[in-house]
Every structure is written in structure tokens, then in C-alpha cells.
Amino acid sequence: MYGNGVTDDVDRTAFRRAEKKYKLYYDQNSKKKKQPRPVDISEVLDFKLILDTFNRTGKTPNGVHVLKGEFDCPVLRLDNRPGFYFIPGALNVEQQCQWIRESLMSFPQPPNRTNHNAHYGPIKDLFAAAGEGKILVQEEHSPESLSNGQAQRCKFCDKSENVALKGYGGSSIMASVLLRKLRWSTLGLQFDWSKRNYDVSLPHNKIPDDLCQLVKKLAAPAMPAGDEFKPEAAIVNYFASGDTLGGHLDDMELDWTKPIVSMSLGCKAIFLLGGKSRDDEPLAMFLRSGDVVLMAGQARECFHGVPRIFTDTEHSEIAPLEKHFTTEHDRCFLDYIGTSRININIRQVF
Ligand SMILES: O=C(O)CCC(=O)C(=O)O
Predict the structure, then answer these.
(1) Spatial CA neighbour of 218 closest among 294, 163, 273, 305
(2) Residue 273 domain-assigned?
(3) Residue 165: which domain range?
(4) Within a domain: residue 6?
(5) Whose alpha carbon is nearest atom 8 of ligand 1?
(6) Atom number in ligand 1 closest to CA 239
(7) Are residues 314 and 217 in the same domain?
(8) Fewer Cβ in 10 A, N or C end of the chain?
């Protein structure tokens, strides 16, 4: 799904054309300054607006329904995408802040793996090290690198200390650079991207209890009657400006009647929900901080992806987070999320 996630031929499929339509491109103006190319969002579904209108008038667009009363928040569903549910603003701002903190401080901690593992081995305390201006030093010929198959052994150093350590033949990189390049971390059962499967032999911690409790509740509208969701694995996606997630299916879980529970945090994004073929015209919709999407049953067979996040202040819609991350200690979270998006998607694997 990452890297070469978009495998179809350029522009051949409806999904690929939609990705290109919404992707961030830059134009150069006469003063040779890069400007984001304007994007046509007139066809992007806005479930927040649909819900606001429903609350005022009792009306929804054709094919959109609001399930109200049965769950903690109103849940929207679409006639033409059975198994897909959208819960606008399912997480309040305190919950959003909590999961942003966790996504940055604890979720990337070993034994959870991140995209950096393959190159640098396990990295502890990346977010704190980035805030302290530390440098990650790779020791290329350490005994560990030979015995456990990791490419390198890494540790953080203060900048001054690093000058001396570099002399031993390692290379170094700012922790802040690695933080900006953090693309995913995995919780619970660890997903092996190279084999596109869960590797149950890898050491892992259970999904934290408070996340499990929350997700069980959120999953309820998409669950088979009388059944309870079991959160066993999660993938946390980190998006910086210009990052995209190519069209893909999540098909490595055993029972597709169980939903994937997908929580959005930070900057607003466009999500594409296609059909069973990349040739099916995808629906584009906005995802804002606090929105939750459920994909179960037939929706599990639908291609989906994220072609765009909006990091500019006019469109990112993170003002509620700015009001909450106010203390000196919280400044670092706001600095990150002000130009980033985090997605936590939780799965029942078996
Ligand atoms: O970022 C999102 O909202 C979608 C994430 C997703 O599709 C995935 O990780 O499989």
C-alpha cells in the first residue's frame, strides 16, 4: 500500500484519475514562487454539512441516511456503499488531543514497529528527541547489527556529543527529520508490509485498554447483531503536507463482516471510497479531526485511499485543537499536528 501503492497505469482507471484530481500540485508564478494549484472540491461529499442540514431540516440528499438515537452520535450511511458508515465528530476535542499525544509519544515506541525499523532498527523516544533537537546516530558495525539482523543500532545523542561519535564510522540524522518522515506505526499484532500479512511471531503489546473500550463502542453500528468487536491490531498513519495514501484494499483480516474502525486526527483530508474495481468512479469525501469511518461487509471490498491533506490554515480546520493544546508542554503537539494528519485504523484480525 505504501511506496508503490498506486500500481495501475497512469490515468487508466477512474480511481487513479480521482487521485490526480485531488492531489497537491504546485504551480510556479511569475516571481518563481511555488503556489498550491487550486483544486475543484465541488463534488466532495461533506458529511458534517449533511448532518447540520439534517439537524435543521430533517432532510438528507438522496441515498444518504442518518441513523439517529441508537448510538452515542448520529451515524450516516449510503445506499450505494453498503457496509460503509461515517460518524462526523465522533471524537470530542479532548479525545482527539489524547490520541494525538499517544500517536506521537507511545504508539511508535518499540516493540511497535514503524517505517523506520527496516533502515534504522527500533528507535525509542523519537518524538521527545525531536523536541530536544537530538541527533540519531547509527553505529553501522555494532555487534547487535550482526546478531539480530537489524541493519543498524541507533541511539540519540546531543549534537555536541555526536561530533565525536561520528568518528567511529556511523552516520547521523536529526530526530526531527525522522519524525517528519514517520509514515506508520503498528500496534497490537504487527503487520509485516513486505509479506502483506500479520506476523504473529513478532513481539507486540496488546492494544491499550482505553483505545479498545472506545473502539468497541465506535464499531457497534457496523457489527453483526449480538457480536462485539475485538481490537487486535492497528495501523497508525502519519501524513505531512503532500503525502498521500494510494488506492488499496485492506484484505488481510479473516472475517470481513467485522469493520475496520478508522479515526481521523489533525488536518482535514479528502478520502476516496471506490468500488470493487479501480474502474469504478470513487466517491470523494472530507475527513476532519474527530471523524470516524467504519468499513465492513461489502465495503471491505472497496478500494480506498487519501489523495490529499490540507495543511494551510484556511482549510486545515484544526482551530478546536489550537484552543486545547495551550500549555507550554502541549506546544510540541500543536507544532506537529498544525501541518499534519494522523489516522488510527483498528482491526479485528481473526
Ligand atoms: O488515512 C485514512 O483515513 C485511511 C487509512 C487507510 O485506508 C489504511 O490505513 O488502510
Answers:
(1) 294
(2) yes
(3) 116-180
(4) no
(5) 345
(6) 1
(7) yes
(8) C
